[in-house]
Amino acid sequence: MSDVVAELERRYPPSLAESWDAVGLVCGDRAESARRVLVCVDVTDAVVDAALADGVELIVAHHPLLMRGATSVAADTSKGRIVHRLIRGGCGLFSAHTNADKARSGVSDALAEVLGVLDTVPLAAEPVAPLDKWIVMVPEGNADQVSEAMFGAGAGAIGDYRDCQWSVVGTGQFLPMDGAEPAVGAVGNLTRVDEERLEMVAPRGRRGMVLEALRAAHPYEEPAFDVFEQAAVGSDVGLGRIGRLPTAMTFADFVDHAGRVLPKASWPIRGAGDPDARIETVAVCGGAGDSLIGAAAAAGADVYLTGDLRHHVVDEARRTAGPALVDAGHWATEFPWCATVADILTEIGCQATVFEDATDPFAVVPGSKENS
After folding, report:
1. Is 62 assigned to a binding site?
2. For the chain, which terminal residue's Cβ has fewer other Cβ atoms within 10 angstroms, N or C?
3. What is the mean pLDDT of the chain?
4. Was 316 annotated as part of a binding site?
């Protein structure tokens, strides 16, 4: 199981997950085999039934079973029942959620591919490893000791290069007041010092350690420094995707096209926009994506397809010159990713299958009884 988990975490780094998310191995022994794998969107009792019946050793799900938190996994609770069944059946459970939403070969990539959208880039890009830009003013004679301390705390790394920095010499000025204990100059005297301006990057997650190293190595009791969060310039990961259709079509035709190629849920997709509008630039986001309507508009999308669009959000968006909107459902926009994961795991020697039945909870629609 450890090699399967390692491959999934390589493809979908846990560091990309949102802070509130719960991704990774939920249950299972990394030392045990996981040659037979079942991929799904939601971990339901039906999914567990299928997995145990087929001798599956690992379920890979998009939605975390324990995302909302739990104080108990007792067998008489809804989530605990599933955990106990899996453990007793020798089946592990792994989840890739917002990390799979952001990474390449992720949820929105699979959705875009099914729709035939080409040349995609993230709709809301973010860096793989968020970086800070540090600017520190240091007396010339102390510049090396400060930069070395910051390097030791993790700053100055860019790709395969280490100890990276830029510096220039200038003049620093300060006036120590009562209570100060200046390393240079005296209380009440305006002091000018030849200083180096050091610039380097550091992982955002190491901000505290870099700051501690800076303060410990800097000769001043109040070092002058700035920290800036860097923008995700040129990033290839992030939420949503935007690209182009090979041939433009009307909005009405695009909605029909989406209805034909997307997985069939119990209820149809729906669109909001001018049926005759020309559609070429397409933005998508698997799952609940109404928070990215503004990003789709800013990116110049002609249409934005996602799930779980709310009435008032759509009504407000349609009052502007933004894109036409398509609600294709939560499950239906995420399900195409399951085939991607199955392919990835097949490549490393697993027998990976997809749970094909819809796990969308909205399964009862007009005519359901007659059609059953």
Report:
1. yes
2. C
3. 95
4. no
Whether pLDDT at 370 is above 70 = no
Class of domain 104-125+237-333: alpha beta
Confidence of residue 132 (pLDDT cuts 50, 70, 90): very high
Instruction: Answer whether CATH 3.30.70.120 is correct for domain 131-229.
Output: yes
Domain segments of the chain as ranges: 2-97, 104-125+237-333, 131-229
Give the E-state strand segments of 127-263 in sequence order. Answer: 131-139, 166-174, 191-203, 224-229, 237-250
Quick check: do 2-97 and 104-125+237-333 share a fold?
yes
Pick the CATH number of 2-97 from 2.60.40.1220, 3.10.200.10, 1.20.1640.10, 3.40.1390.30: 3.40.1390.30
**Binding site annotation covers 97?**
no
CA dist list (Å): 319 to 224, 228, 251, 293, 323:
48, 36, 17, 13, 11
- Does the predicted TM-score (pTM) go above 0.85? no
pLDDT digits (tens, 9 = 90+) for 222-259: 999 999 998 877 789 999 999 999 999 999 999 999 99
Residue 363's Cα: distance from chain center in Å? 29
Return the pLDDT at 44: 96
Task: Kindly indicate the confidence band of residue 366, based on its pLDDT and cuts at 50, 70 and 90.
Answer: confident
Residues ≥6 apart with Cβ < 8 Å to 359: 40, 41, 42, 44, 46, 47, 331
**Residue 163 labelled as part of a binding site:** no
330 labeled part of a ligand binding site? yes
